[in-house]
């Protein structure tokens, strides 16, 4: 590990990682209300889940070690906050939520192994988890085989739909296509250099991006496309190619700790992001916490949530998050989407009057969360969320300022015609 990566991860994220790992594997956060006044367990739990008269157990499955911990620790924190708030308000069907946390350790086979444990051994009624598409693809067969319910928080490439997953992040039409349309229209962008980490999401996302750029943006073309292993820290070669190619847009889908090195090396190479347009769909405030605002200021990000959103729901959420995890913590898009998971599950369970997964899957369509920090969300029949798309401009303070927002919610379409 290079000194640069070591310092970036250790100094900026050590506190956050320790918080994520500090929780005991099995615990609950509060015990203020009295529980046990809900409907009989035999009525609401007919499939042998970990549900008693007073408690229901869920799983949390994210990486709190390895290169993806920089991104996933915030999701763990948000899910625990939601669980604490739900418990404080009376729980779910009169039952207190207890959680079992497992570490996917930035390793896809480990995610599958831990998912099986949570479903088969622990009988979790639902699981909040994963970040990368590789981890989601690794656990999906497990959830479908054992009929579990996963709440997945990350923006992703789409091209998937499952009865056993609620996708609380955006899919491609809501993020990739909307972002490219924006940068083409507002910046007059015609040439694009595509970068990504080397796994499912960046490669598939850039495949969709290339089809949109070359097939739908008049006169536009891709002038370069490269991928790097997870944890990669040496970007000088591709930065030199970018300087020679001079694309209108650097389109970056680099994930995890690699972002620390990439943006520092961009700046060191003299690339001024106030002059060279860079659009990312992978960097949130969580990553900027390690990258440093001074190294990414001027970059644009396209997603549905930024910590700076000015609405009553978000102000309340940010205040509660910082109260629980510290004033210096930051909140990115996936962190907010992870917060939605426990709340959407609670509302669906109460609509269904049952913890049974089949009943929850059936009852999910139409569930609305009016208190979402992003403003408002609704579950579509395809198990994705209606949501707005926003573009943020990175500042020296490590925050994104919203410079564009779609006027309406965008209907999710995980299988857009012509992009598969």
From TrEMBL:
Signal peptide: none annotated. InterPro entries: ABC_urea-bd_UrtA (IPR017777), Peripla_BP_I (IPR028082). Pfam families: Peripla_BP_5 (PF13433). Coiled coil: none annotated. PANTHER family: ALIPHATIC AMIDASE EXPRESSION-REGULATING PROTEIN, PTHR47628. This is Urea ABC transporter substrate-binding protein. The gene is urtA.
């Amino acid at each position: 590990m290079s000194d640069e990566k070591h310092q970036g991860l250790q100094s900026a994220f050590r506190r956050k990682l320790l918080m994520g790992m500090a929780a005991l594997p099995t615990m609950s956060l509060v015990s203020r209300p009295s529980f046990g006044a809900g409907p009989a367990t035999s009525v609401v739990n007919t499939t042998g889940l970990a549900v008693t008269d007073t408690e229901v157990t869920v799983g949390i499955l994210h990486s709190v070690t390895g290169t993806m911990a920089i991104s996933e620790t915030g999701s763990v924190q948000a899910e625990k906050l939601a669980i604490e708030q739900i418990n404080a308000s009376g729980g779910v069907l009169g039952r207190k939520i207890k959680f079992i946390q497992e570490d996917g350790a930035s390793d896809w086979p480990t995610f599958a192994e831990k998912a099986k444990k949570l479903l088969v051994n622990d009988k979790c009624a639902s699981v909040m988890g994963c970040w990368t598409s590789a981890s989601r693809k690794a656990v999906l067969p497990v959830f479908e085989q054992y009929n579990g319910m996963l709440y997945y928080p990350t923006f992703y490439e789409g091209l998937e739909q499952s009865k056993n997953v609620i996708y609380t992040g955006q899919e491609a039409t809501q993020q990739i296509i909307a972002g490219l349309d924006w940068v083409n229209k507002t910046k007059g962008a015609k040439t694009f250099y595509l970068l990504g980490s080397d796994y499912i999401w960046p490669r598939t996302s850039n495949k969709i991006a290339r089809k949109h750029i070359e097939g739908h943006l008049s006169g536009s073309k891709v002038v370069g496309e490269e991928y790097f292993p997870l944890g990669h820290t040496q970007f000088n070669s591709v930065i030199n190619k970018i300087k020679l190619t001079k694309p209108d847009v650097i389109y970056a889908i680099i994930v995890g700790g690699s972002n620390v090195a990439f943006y520092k090396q961009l700046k060191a190479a003299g690339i001024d992001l106030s002059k060279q347009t860079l659009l990312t769909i992978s960097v949130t405030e969580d990553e900027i916490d390690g990258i440093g605002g001074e190294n990414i200021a001027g970059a644009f990000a396209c997603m549905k949530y930024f910590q700076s959103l000015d609405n009553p729901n978000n102000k309340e959420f940010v205040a509660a998050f910082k109260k629980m995890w510290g004033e210096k913590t930051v909140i990115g898009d996936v962190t907010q989407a992870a917060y939605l998971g426990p709340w959407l599950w609670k509302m669906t369970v109460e609509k269904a009057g049952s913890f049974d997964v089949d009943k929850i899957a059936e009852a999910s369509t139409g569930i609305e969360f009016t208190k979402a920090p992003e403003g408002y969300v609704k579950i579509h029949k395809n198990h994705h969320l209606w949501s707005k798309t926003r573009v943020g401009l990175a500042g020296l303070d490590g925050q994104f300022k919203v410079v564009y927002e779609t006027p309406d919610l965008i209907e999710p379409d995980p299988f857009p015609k012509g992009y598969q």
